[in-house]
Amino acid sequence: MSRQRRIRSTFLAALRAFVRRKTAVFFTFFFPVLLILIFGALLQTQPAGGGLFAREPAYYLPGYLGIVVVFTPLSRVGSTIARHRDGNRFEKLATTPLRRWEWLFAHTLVNVGVIGLAGLLLFALVLVVTGASVVVGPALSALVPLVVLGVALFCGLGAIIGRVADSQDGVIAASNGVALPVWMLSETFVPPSMLPAWFRPVTALSPLTYFSRGVRTAAGGGDPTGSLLVLAVVSLAVFAVGAIAVPTTE
Amino acid sequence: MRSDATALVADGVRKRYGDTVALDGVSLSIPEGEVFGLVGPNGAGKTTLVRALTGTAACEGEIRVLGSAPTAVDADRIGLLPQSFHPADRLTARELLSHYAGLYDAPRDVDTVLDDVGLADDADTWYENLSGGQQRRACVGTALVNDPDVLFLDEPTTGIDPSGRRSLWSLVEGLAAGGTTVLLTSHSMTEVERLADRVGLLRDGSLVAVGSPTALVDAHGGDSHLLVEGRDLDRETVARALDATVSERDGRLVVRNVALADVGRVVADLEAAGVDVESFTWAEPSLEDVYLSLTGEALDERQASAAGTESER
Question: Is B206 helix (H, G, I), strand (E, B) or coil?
Fold first, then answer.
C-alpha cells in the first residue's frame, strides 16, 4: 500500500508537470505526425520500385510507432533526471521512503500513458494516410505489451543517459545520438536486405529490432511471442540498470 | 523540549573533492530537541556536512542519526530542505506538498502545513508564479509534511522577506518546542542567535568553535565598547579622564570594556574633563563579532580594503 501510494504520488506529480508544458505535449504528438505526413503522404512507398521505401506501407508501421517509443522516453526521462539533479531534487528524495526504481517506474507509467495515446494516434494515421492494412484479430492486441515494454526499455536507457550526461544539453545530444541510429537500423525503415551482409548481425543486437519484428508480426496476424519475450527480458534488464542509475546521492 | 538522548553524532567526518578538503575531521553531537545552527563562510563545508549527515554524500568517519547510519535511518523521521532546492515548477503549492506528503505513510495534513508556512492563501498558485520568498516557504513545507523528528534546513530563509523570515523563525521555534531536533545552516547571525541553542562555526572544513551563542560571544566576541565622536578629541585626555584603555578607529575613539550601566558615568566624566563630545555609540559584542573573529573575514575585508586603497593611490 505504501509503495503504491509513493508511486501514485510521483506519477501524478510527473504527469501534471508534463501536461502543463504545452509545447512539450504538442511536439510529442506533432513530430511523429509530421513524419507520417512527410514519408507516408508526400513521399509514399513504392512497393514495386527501389529505394528506401520499397516495401508495402504496413512494413513501416513499427518505424512510425518507434519514433515515439524511442525518442520520447529517452529524451524525457534523461532531461527529467538532469532537471532533478540541477534542482537538488534527488538529494531531497534520497531522504524520503521513495526508492529509485519506484521513481523510475512512476515516470515510466507517465511515458506509457503519453506514448500510448501518441501511438494510438499514429496507428490510426498510418492506416488512413499511408493505406497500410493490418489483420484485425487477437494477435493485434500484442501491440499493447510491445509498446509498454518498448517504452520501459527506453525509459531505463534514458535514466542511464541522464546519469552519465552532466547537463540537459548533454542529455538531448546523447539521446539524439543514440536514438537516431537505433531507430533507423532496427528493421524499422531500412529492410535488412538493404544493409551490408556484415552489418546485419548488428541489428539483432538492437532491442528495437524485436519491437519491430513483434509489431510487424502482430499486425500481420502472426504470433509475436518470441519477439515479445526477448523484448521483455531486455526491457527488464535495462530498466533495472536504469533504476540503479537514478542518481539519489553524489 | 530537550532530552539526554542524542539525535545526531558525527565523529571524525572527512570529505574530499579531488584536492579540495571539504570536511576535515568534523566531530559533533546534537541531543534530541536541540536547535543547532551551523555557520561559516561560503565553501566552509556547511552543505557538505548536511549531505554527510543525511547520507546523500559518502564520507569517511562515523555518523549516527537517531542511532542509525544516515542511509539506514527511518526516512519517516527525517526532513530535509536542501540548499538551492528547485522542485517541479508547474505544480501548485498544494500539489507540491501533496506530492511529498504522498511519499510517507502518515503525513501531516497538507493544508495545515501550507498554513504553517504562510501559503494558505496561495495554495493553488503554480510554484513558478510564487514570489521568491513564497517559493522558499513552499520548499520549507516539503520538509515538514512528514512531521520529522530531525529536521535539516540548509539556508531556509534565503530570499525570504523580513516578515516571512520571522514567521518561519516562529515556526522553527514551535517545532523545537515540540521536541524536533533542528540543524540549520545560515548566513544570518540574527537568525542563528535567535533560533539556535548551540552554534557550530565551520571554517575550511573544520569546526573551529561550538557553543551556545552567549558562550561563544563571551569567549570570542571581545568587549562591549563605547564609540566617542567629536571635534578635536584627544585620545590621551579621554583615557586620563576615564582611567580606561582608549584606541582610535576611523576618526573616533573607542573606549573598551564599558558596560551599558556605566555609559552615564562615562559621559559625566568626559563633560567634567571638558571634552567636547558630539555623539556616543555603545555596542556589545555579538555572534557576528565571533564569526568575523573566528573566520578571519574581518581581517580579510580589512586587508582587501587596504589593498584597494593602496591601488587607488
Answer: strand
CA distances from B85 to A88, B54, B261 (A): 5, 15, 47
Domain boundaries, chain A: 2-245
**What ipTM, to 2 d.p.?**
0.89
Q: If residue B35 lies in a helix (H) or strand (E), which one and from where to where?
A: strand B35-39
Residues 60-99 of B with CB under 8 A from A: 75-76, 78-91, 95-96, 98-99
The pTM (predicted TM-score) of the whole model is 0.85
**Domains (range + CATH), chain B:** 6-219 (3.40.50.300), 223-283 (3.30.70.100)
Write out the three cell numbers for B163. 516578515
Does B280 contact A at CB distance below 8 Å? no
Q: What is d(CA B194, CA B197) in angstroms, rounded to the nearest whole number?
A: 9
Tens digit of pLDDT for each residue in A172-221?
A: 999 999 999 998 889 988 888 888 888 888 888 999 999 999 999 999 99
- Give the nearest partner residue to A96 out of B75, B89, B91, using CB atoms: B75
Among the partner residues B51, B57, B75, nearest to A97 by beta-carbon distance = B75
Query: Could you read off the pLDDT of A133-166 as tens digits, one per residue?
Result: 899 999 999 999 999 999 999 999 999 999 999 8
The answer for residues whose C-beta is within 8 angstroms of residue A184's C-beta and 6 or more apart is: A190
Closest Cα in chain B to A13: B99
φ, ψ of residue A98 in degrees (nearest 5):
-65, 130
